[in-house]
Amino acid sequence: MRRDPRIRDIALLLWLALWAGLASGQVVVNGELRGQVKDETGAALPGAGVTATSVDRGVSRTVTTDATGKFRFSELQPGRYNVTVTLSGFSTVTLTNNLVENQKTTEIPVSLRLSSQKAEVVVTGEVPVVDKTNGALETRQRAKEFEKMPVGRSFQALFLNAPGVNLIPGANPNPVVHGALSSNNLWLYDGTDTTDPTTGTFGGNLNFEAIQEVSVITSGVSAEYGRAIGGVINIITKSGTNQIAGSGKVIMTNDKWDAANTTTSTVCSTAGGTLNCTHPSLARVKYDHVNPRYAATLGGPLWKDHVWFFGAYESADRTTGQQSTPVSQENFQQSTKDRFWDGKLTAQVTPSISASARGSSSPTSGFVVSYGFFGSPGELVAYTGQDQTSQQYAGFLTGVFGSSLTAEAQYNWNGPGLSSSKHGIDVYPFAGAGPLHYDESTGFQFNGPTFNGYVNRPRQGALGAVTYYTNIGGNSHNFKAGIDYQHLRSASQFGFVGNQVFRDLSYDFRTRTFVPDTRRDYDAPVPSLSEGNIISVYARDKFELGKHLFMEVGARYEHQKSNDDISRQRRDGLAAPPDRL
User: Fold this and answer.
1) What angle do CA 143, 412, 415 make, to 5 degrees?
2) pTM for the whole thing?
């Protein structure tokens, strides 16, 4: 007795769903190419062979059109593809340079003519203007575009070009999207969640030379993402191809080369009962110093048509202009060092199974920060030194099983560093610092910094998902279901130098003498650790209703549980004593 192929597909779907749950971050960044083959009269042509070949990597996959002449290539790596269509008695047609982008569907109509001669149709590759299968409001910027734009060398400088994305004046580069809080965004690298577990802001930097594309979704977010009331920012990194290619850049900046500031300020007072205003110039003394930045990339095949690599490295030493402390009038400069790298391996294991792994690191050291917990630093030794770093590692696996089923799995780890001596943020006193003295008469701090310690906020995530394609009532349906697991940690340790703080009636920084008011003694600092898990399941259906209407319906459920540093548990955002849970 012949087994019903539908039963086989359902069994395979259930097996993959179980595998996905056990393997079980966010979405794998692949795209889709589909179309319909018709003859010159507009009649559908079933049974035609359709082959999609990657222009960049040489990988090919072949499918057969269904009873309605439709074909689909799911889980394609982004890039350009040549599509060849063959059917006995008809001319062979090749459509070249069809662009496939992550999380988008590229549609290509194909028309075959009755002929015994081979014919080739060359179509100029165009970026799809409308993707009716994607209902999200999305803005994309590609490397060929932003490399020519006068923007800063960071992904934070790119997402601000999307409509509805704004920065609060004076705030750090975490945007407000359509009025949501700056902590309500979701930050992704190649689809993996890198959002800071504590603040909800971006969790690290990235080598600018490694960025292929920046996608910003501001509304209509799919159930696949979740945890984002604001925007979803996805940074796609570059991958290697069959062509060995690289780049080298030296970028130099100098404050002296910038135009002078001719703006004036307005300062008014009502001394003597009369309004008096002055207009001091905002011009400043420019610092004549070249700050070089060196960047290099290299990519190509390790095994042509099968395995590819890409790597990028960037080094920069930046020294700011001269600054002065407000009370002691000490001159100082900030000198920071960037040492950013990014690497990716991509493999086509079989024509239907692909895998990739990537890693990156973005340490910056040498910040001089004015932390004013009690008051503003009045001398240099009261400022705080700061180093920061982040690393991301991720692995991806996608598979296509027949014409109706695909699966994907992903794992990612984001954190400050694999070495225990490296933290996400390290803050430290400068040489000669002692206990902090707060001068109550002036409101300035002296003798030592506010903070001494570190912050660690690693995140681990894994996901598994399956997608099933079918036709119901003559309309195509794209069902997807998945599970998303996240493990979050937030560790910190802060203390005062010497575990003491002095509040003084007055403090003379020249003689180091003071008139005491109170002294606070603290215990030696100990680490504070909170950690928790988030388990999410989601399902969604993208489907057509006739020729002119396309809909997406989805649902997502999340369960959160965490423990703070005094062993209190939280579930779904509600706190309760342990004995009540």
Assistant:
1) 90
2) 0.82
